[in-house]
Write a structure and sequence with these properties.
- The protein is of the alpha+beta class.
- It has one domain: 3-Layer(aba) Sandwich (SMI1/KNR4-like).
- It has 8 helices and 4 strands; from the N terminus they run H-H-H-H-H-E-E-E-E-H-H-H.
- Strands 1-2-3-4 form a 4-stranded antiparallel beta sheet.
- It is globular, with a radius of gyration of 16 Å.
């Protein structure tokens, strides 16, 4: 099963679990349109990575995962990218895509200088040194699809991500070649 299909399946399961826990709808919200995505890109002067565009077309800002995922112009402001997008993240081309539920955020990098590819950074609000909270604590996935798999599996009770090096690299081998920001297990080892 491809990673996008795994994510779709996991997201559906996560939404059904959430529906039981919090008396919410048991289906994922529909995706947004290409026109809405194009308008978002025009408003902010950036091009979304293909995987984010695909995810937003599948479902837009579902309330799945520990701190919920983000979308474009969602009905819930707590799930809306633009409502939560800090100026420092915008300047760097980082798009908030989820939260850990405790005040920290996951951002998707959109610029080549943060690559290879479009990694996902974790920004721990307790470790932030700078005023605009733009210092990554660690890189937790090499791309959005890998991040969503890990994020949704963790919410479903699968342990190990992002600190278990062997588990993470087995599912996201591209992360082994990333060296610009420490990986979670490297931060854990340093502390």
């Amino acid at each position: 099963m491809s990673i996008p299909k795994r994510v779709e399946c996991l997201a559906g399961v996560a939404q059904r679990i959430l529906a039981v826990r919090e008396s919410m709808p048991s289906t994922l919200p529909p995706g947004t349109t290409d026109e809405a995505i194009d308008a978002f890109e025009a408003r902010h002067g950036l091009i979304l990575p293909l995987e984010l565009r695909e995810w937003l077309r599948f479902t837009n800002g579902p309330s799945v995962g520990a701190g919920r995922t983000r979308g474009i112009r969602t009905t819930n402001p707590a799930n809306d990218i633009e409502a939560l997008w800090l100026p420092g993240w915008r300047r760097r081309g980082w798009i908030p895509i989820a939260s850990d539920g405790c005040g920290s955020h996951y951002v998707l990098a959109t610029r080549p200088e943060d690559g290879p590819g479009h990694p996902v950074f974790f920004l721990d609000h307790e470790r932030q040194q700078d005023e605009d909270r733009s210092t990554p604590t660690y890189v937790c996935a090499s791309c959005l699809w890998s991040f969503l798999c890990f994020y949704l599996m963790e919410d479903g009770g699968v342990e190990g991500w992002p600190f278990n090096r062997y588990m993470v690299l087995a599912d996201d081998p591209a992360l082994a070649h990333y060296s610009k920001v420490r990986r979670a297990w490297e931060v854990d080892e340093a502390d």
